[in-house]
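Supplementary material to the annual report.
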Amino acid sequence: MNHDSNDTQAVKLKGEEVAQHNNRESCWVIVDGRAYDVTEFLPEHPGGPKIILKYAGKDATEEYAPIHPPDTLEKYLDKSKHLGEVDMNTVEKEEKEEDPDEAERQERIARMPILEQCYNLMDFEAVAKRVMKKTAWAYYSSGADDEITLRENHSAFHKIWFRPRILVNVEKIDLSTTMLGTKVSIPFYVTATALGKLGNPEGEVVLTRGARKHNVIQMIPTLASCSFDEICDEREGDQVQWLQLYVNKDRAITKRIIEHAEKRGCKGLFITVDAPQLGRREKDMRSKFSDVGSNVQNTGGDNVDRSQGAARAISSFIDPALCWEDIPWFLSVTKMPILLKGVQRVEDVIRAISAGVQGVVLSNHGGRQLDFARSGIEVLAEVMPELRRLGLENKIEIYIDGGIRRATDIIKALCLGATGVGIGRPFLYAMSAYGLPGVDRAMQLLKDEMEMNMRLIGASSIDQLDPSMIDTRGLSMHTTSVPSDTLGLDVYDPLVGPSGSFRPETRSKL
Amino acid sequence: MNHDSNDTQAVKLKGEEVAQHNNRESCWVIVDGRAYDVTEFLPEHPGGPKIILKYAGKDATEEYAPIHPPDTLEKYLDKSKHLGEVDMNTVEKEEKEEDPDEAERQERIARMPILEQCYNLMDFEAVAKRVMKKTAWAYYSSGADDEITLRENHSAFHKIWFRPRILVNVEKIDLSTTMLGTKVSIPFYVTATALGKLGNPEGEVVLTRGARKHNVIQMIPTLASCSFDEICDEREGDQVQWLQLYVNKDRAITKRIIEHAEKRGCKGLFITVDAPQLGRREKDMRSKFSDVGSNVQNTGGDNVDRSQGAARAISSFIDPALCWEDIPWFLSVTKMPILLKGVQRVEDVIRAISAGVQGVVLSNHGGRQLDFARSGIEVLAEVMPELRRLGLENKIEIYIDGGIRRATDIIKALCLGATGVGIGRPFLYAMSAYGLPGVDRAMQLLKDEMEMNMRLIGASSIDQLDPSMIDTRGLSMHTTSVPSDTLGLDVYDPLVGPSGSFRPETRSKL
Amino acid sequence: MNHDSNDTQAVKLKGEEVAQHNNRESCWVIVDGRAYDVTEFLPEHPGGPKIILKYAGKDATEEYAPIHPPDTLEKYLDKSKHLGEVDMNTVEKEEKEEDPDEAERQERIARMPILEQCYNLMDFEAVAKRVMKKTAWAYYSSGADDEITLRENHSAFHKIWFRPRILVNVEKIDLSTTMLGTKVSIPFYVTATALGKLGNPEGEVVLTRGARKHNVIQMIPTLASCSFDEICDEREGDQVQWLQLYVNKDRAITKRIIEHAEKRGCKGLFITVDAPQLGRREKDMRSKFSDVGSNVQNTGGDNVDRSQGAARAISSFIDPALCWEDIPWFLSVTKMPILLKGVQRVEDVIRAISAGVQGVVLSNHGGRQLDFARSGIEVLAEVMPELRRLGLENKIEIYIDGGIRRATDIIKALCLGATGVGIGRPFLYAMSAYGLPGVDRAMQLLKDEMEMNMRLIGASSIDQLDPSMIDTRGLSMHTTSVPSDTLGLDVYDPLVGPSGSFRPETRSKL
Amino acid sequence: MNHDSNDTQAVKLKGEEVAQHNNRESCWVIVDGRAYDVTEFLPEHPGGPKIILKYAGKDATEEYAPIHPPDTLEKYLDKSKHLGEVDMNTVEKEEKEEDPDEAERQERIARMPILEQCYNLMDFEAVAKRVMKKTAWAYYSSGADDEITLRENHSAFHKIWFRPRILVNVEKIDLSTTMLGTKVSIPFYVTATALGKLGNPEGEVVLTRGARKHNVIQMIPTLASCSFDEICDEREGDQVQWLQLYVNKDRAITKRIIEHAEKRGCKGLFITVDAPQLGRREKDMRSKFSDVGSNVQNTGGDNVDRSQGAARAISSFIDPALCWEDIPWFLSVTKMPILLKGVQRVEDVIRAISAGVQGVVLSNHGGRQLDFARSGIEVLAEVMPELRRLGLENKIEIYIDGGIRRATDIIKALCLGATGVGIGRPFLYAMSAYGLPGVDRAMQLLKDEMEMNMRLIGASSIDQLDPSMIDTRGLSMHTTSVPSDTLGLDVYDPLVGPSGSFRPETRSKL
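Predicted assembly:
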């Protein structure tokens, strides 16, 4: 049998032949009915070699599909490694182990709340947490290090309070605004998040449909599960999409991506600048461990699996050398507005204006990169007064993302001066739990909350929101309490109300 | 049988006839022995159509009575829809399902603490929480969004501390003061709260009696369960009442209400300005869901029940267009002092003075409208120094409400410069748990606390309270802690005292 | 039988005769083998009539003794009501109910930790909490209202941090200092606390012995369980005592007490100025309720037991009219140094200096009077800089009490400028749990901590402590967090370390 | 048998003879097969006499070895007390009690996570906590008093947040820096910690090997379990070690130690200045109690075991009189750079510069000495701006230690201006749980985190870190919340999401 010529192959590979290539020295895997020789690719795999070796000689489709766009093998694996079709009837079906976690998950899915029981964005997350696969949940929900920034992102909004206006005519509320020239129905967009198929078999196109229905913009992620073109194809009418870009070391590839996006009608290019290296997310790592981990007590220091391997692999794709000097080149290769996504201090916003970009997203990558990076809303509160002082507030559009869960969060950002906000995980969770109807309801809930809260703060349109309507005095303090006085708390007898008397055993004494 | 002529009807309707109109196309309900055709009214019902449809063709009295004033159908349902009396013997008695929650509640009621076991206002709430119907409790206790303002309202008082005077003669304590010209025994009034019959079958008149006994003012709510006249009728002697007003789009109706109130002797008109749209209270919504929710797994995006329907329905009653320009008209139609209830920033207090009203209530509607609205006491601390700076502090009476639970809370407000404070939920809870005796004891406890704390702060009368007697340095900061360091806390072994030795299993080792 | 002449009585009263006077109309009680007619005294009893009526016609000794000095009846009940001796053999022994709480307490006493297991003052409290009678514990440990000041008193010390000096010769540490002219071994004194016999049958004399052993001053409380003379008699050698004074409305009584104290050698007179009315302590009230509470469901509004009764009764003893104008009189009737105990703001410290007193105690009465009164240490931090600014810092001795549990707390107060600190409850708890050895060890532990911490902060004697050695920037803020985001916290999955793997069920998967 | 002449002894001692000396009057113990008469040494033992008496007449090797360097008896016990070899066959083997704690610990060890499951430094601590002997864990993990400083040390880092730079070329990250002239691979060193053999039978030499592998400096502790020479001998190549020094009262001994260290090649002398007396650590004391504690209920006040005994014993070794005047002498006896370890305020840093030392370590001794001492990182934030103001920032090298657990912690210290940081406990825990491979992985994890976080903050080398990259506004506040409003919290019904519906019992109602 001649494996070299995979173009003209007539005879299908047999499962038992593939099965022999089940180790680091010769590693074949089957994906979608075709076999591939990934032996040489093992050390370069961004997810590490272990996860591939688990499927060495076997069918990896089920694990592979959700986390790789369909054209991945085509693009990244040399044609000579494409071994051709496999006769799937000859592939041994793997007896799946009884997985009690999975059984419990199916139980929970059977009893999940109906969509109408979700009243706010957190509710979708609460449901998703219980119905998603543990590894998928871990990937979506995890953050950097101690996940302190992850949580701070939403928590920071709690430090901003309202100073509502009264007796304003709020009969008609107009939530619409303009982002990079596009009129949208409400000032949020669906921001880029990776690996949508982990949550829903259809992936990011579900978000495309939701965004269309509610007339908001979708930002297409570089690391989508769907291919870029699939997501574009899903667009209808004058629907608008933006592109989120991880810059490749090979600028030719980057250029090709940008030009393709522009050709396909993308209306904005968001260059990610907060991820020269993809973050460590320990919750995610731990969840994978139980899948991939070795099953022997291996504590030998030298056999330690270095995360650097994966980091270096990713470095071959994302360019850690990307710097300000590259910006003119980007401006030269596209007419799309260019925005920097992941700016984190006012000095860099000012520099971005000088560099000639049209906007910035104040963001810490959803708390997934640098722990103790400040929240977008806090950076916004630092940026806007300084821009106003310098007369630069209209030179650029400022967006934030991270931690937005309530319409009040959006209103706070707009009062401070943001053009709009990006929302990511909440729509992923809505999609993971309920599919398109979930995304639809999530967006509608935001609109309902937004309309009501605009009324209550005393603004009938977006342009009426201003800094006098919020109190941000608590925002800048990152406090932690003095550690607790354990012994002191232990001796204190908390007060109890009369409810004690409800207890039958107590009652007898009264 | 002629249903058109309900005036001269002699023959009563039969239950089985009513029972046929049990759907959206033709929906009749029975209330207090009379049938009504509410088919056309369904989409306009402020509480949504579902709850009515639950009783389509049936007797709805038990559900209807506590939450609608007796004259509601008379006022709001066209006469042509009044179908006349029903022969109640022919109406099929509904077998009530065994409700384990209700059985447990009856258990708790049987064992409830005696009134003397309530030592403070929180105690009534603790009892009410356990003896009230779940939906009634949810309605009273719920707040907007994440209920952060709801809780902040009381919590804010904890940031204000005392600087008591010593060696002041406090033998005789005079708690009396004057509100809008009325001498009262203590500086609080019973503020307006809706749907009193949810807590007590007699409704708001119980509060009227309690207020009379303690010589405090009652503010009559627009959305009372009792009719306005019933509450007025309950007044005795020189007892004083005020009116809380939701302004109707139809100013003729509003004018009629105001004129009627003035005629019936109301001494103050409090126009609610913080509720152009009634707030979403998710706890309340969830509690109703289990009553009304559909019993199939309906996750279709297009069938989603929009809360907008209810919102719009309510908009037909409360005018979201109410604005400053309307104030002169109010001043022209009544001689009652006019106050704005729900003011939330100093700019609007100053504008209120210019507009010629006699007072404001700094309030966020008990945390039921805009989450992250600041507490009344915090706004007061912002307002008073600015008014004093402008020499306006005597131009207007300033009240606050929200979160008052202790006499010390009242004293803090008075030290800052409030004329008095409104108290709502605590009296509702006292009434719900113990009826009039509960309201009586709640008020007496406040008086006892007040007298003692006036002594302890070193003031023998209300006018001796001044800003030097409080320390408000902590008030303005809205802080949240840096999110917890989960792993760090997990590895810390808290200190334990010697109490461990009490454990028998430990003892053997010593 | 002639009860009128109790002087010459020869025949003893019979139990059954006493037993007939068992009601409000005629109420006799037996104490220490003698009967008393307390019918007329009932409404004046500071603790309310109920508790007496419980023992009407019976022997009340066991309940009475711990909470009344031996000479109380002699002093306060008119001789005509002393009915003479009772033949105790004829008094029916009361069958004690089985009290499961008491049985459990005895169990705990049998297993209590040995004294050597107490390593700090909190440890005694932890033990006392478990071995004391519930009502006694409630009396000692309770505070005003929500007990926020009670807890703040110790918590405030946590906001003060050290700036230690290094490379100071601390070989020899001298902890001694001088208070009102008396040399003491360490800068604390045993402050006045009421009802010592609740914790130990011998009462306050145990503290006298402990204070003698460690050469510290004891302040004798007005409301001691032992009589004043018993406590004085216990003094030895040049041991020094002070007197804490509640001022009686009848200044003749007050004068007699002062003169007697001076004659008996007291070296300081501390006039309590923070208790014109004794505070409500709900924990204490609740604990008594289960003893005294009525056993029927009485919710009638008019039968409510007013706490005012007790308050008025106490007013007949403590003078709420006491004021600055009284101070010259006090100065005129004694040569003892006079100090005001319970001063709470700098203005009053300055006034105290003008009034000519020798000192003040910055105190909030152990958190038992006005909730939200600030801690003594916080007031001290307000007072001292202002006194220094005015050049008054040496005109007066400043003490604080409240919440001191560690030698570091004492050092913080001294750094700020206090002459010394009063410690109350911790010694009560040590005495209640372990008697004199407990008090002894508690004082010794404080000395050990003090010596070590003086070394560590870099001071070899008390006078080397100064404000530069502490950081008080956090002290003045009374913050509370923004209320928690319940839904947000609920959806967050806290990080877990590898410890999960220890669980057997998890291990099987690895 | 002649015990006097232990030099020429031929006949071994018999176990039964040793066994007779089993009391305070005559106390012999066996260590490593040799007997010693420690009767006179008992009162001087730093750990107190009790622990020795437990082994009186017995073989103490197992308890003795981990906590004493091998040459201790040689050095500190007079030769006349060395009784010579024991015939170990004649020594009665002690039946070990069944220890359920120990059995459980062995269970946990059998199931411990594999090394690869440790993803950060806290993970090693979590494992060590479960696999170490309780007393060893207590010794390592305990801190002073309420352990508030212990926890604050790490917690303080949480108040510092990042202001990352974007678009910086971070392809190549250089973590190397120079400490006291030594080039190291990453800016941390292994700081001195006592009693390494409690965690690992080999003791501190394991850390020597780990430090060598990762090219970082090890600071040798005075109180090591290994002898100083053993640790030096373990050094290889150009590996660098420093010496931590407790100064002995006898300066001749101190001089000998310094000269020996210099001769053995130590490159830095760190004089501990924060421990004139070793701290009380109650957790440690309690853990020892269960070993050593008397087994009778001894509550006699006079028999109380004074901690002063141990304190005084230690004073004979560490000199509490050490002061600034001694510094010139140290400078005169060595050419090694001298640093002061344990400086805690800027005044003393400035004085250290004047005194001519080369550096300071801002440290509170890992929270083991003075509770409420501030964290090193906070002191650093106080020190550096003042040094810069005075132009002194380059006159001295500043290190900090305490609470460092993440690379972000290191970066924060470097941004503020530290030359490097010391890390102690984390490596002890890694060693205790996994030996050298644990130490290796711990260091590697720090390097991985460091490289990534340098990229994410936008710095490619250590010298690019500057104060503009952090936000320290929250650092200086030591806040505690107002004590909780127990009754208020009790009546609040927390919001719950739709997850309730997952519960089967609830589902039936929907």
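DSSP finds 20 helices and 15 strands in chain A.
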